[in-house]
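U., I forgot to send this yesterday:
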Amino acid sequence: MFCIHTKELCFPQNTLIKYFQQITDPYYADVKQWKRDYDRCEMVLFANQCIPKICVCGGPITLATDDKGMSYYECKEYEDDGLRIRHRCFDAIKEELEELKKKVAEEANNRMNDDELHSRHRCFDAIEEELLELKNEVAEESNSRMKMKDELKEMREDIRLLKELLPVGKMKQGDYSVREYNTKFLAGGLLDIHGEGTLVKMYREGLREDIRSKIGKTVFSTLGEIMQEALDVDEGGRPCDRSVSPT
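Result:
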């Protein structure tokens, strides 16, 4: 018998022949297929465990996907701080620890004064102390997250108000002519946001003081009417037919 050498291993010839027979035998091919099917089933079971049908609290869930494409779920009936499952784990550990301490105390009483378990008592005390510290850290992190959510909500509201106010700040006539101001106002994207009465008020407030004083307190029902009136005043024309909108 001789051996076939590789860089690191030495295989007997008979072993290699049996190996090649196994990988070419249809029986082993079926075994491999069974292994692949089992791996797929295991992956499906793992996925079902990761994304359950209901939440751990018993409430319904909704599925979501983050920016990286990872799936997760959120409970519909519970305001999730992201740490409530960890809270349940801490409570379970504490409950189990209390049971162990009771058993150790009973065993110690049976052994009279010297229970020979003082080191185990110290371990339990250390575990309980560490568990309390972890619960405090989780509580602080939970409060911090809730505070950040409130701050984020306020910031979004401020951004929304700024977006609404930003176009209004731009709609000032300044050194523009009324015709240029009309074009700028119509292109500002305000027509899709505000009603006719609000648009008339915003347009009047954006006019120069001299144009606004000449128009006076005349009531206009549409934006087209006040635009045409301001255009007539600026260009020295006669008052317009208010039923015609500016082009």
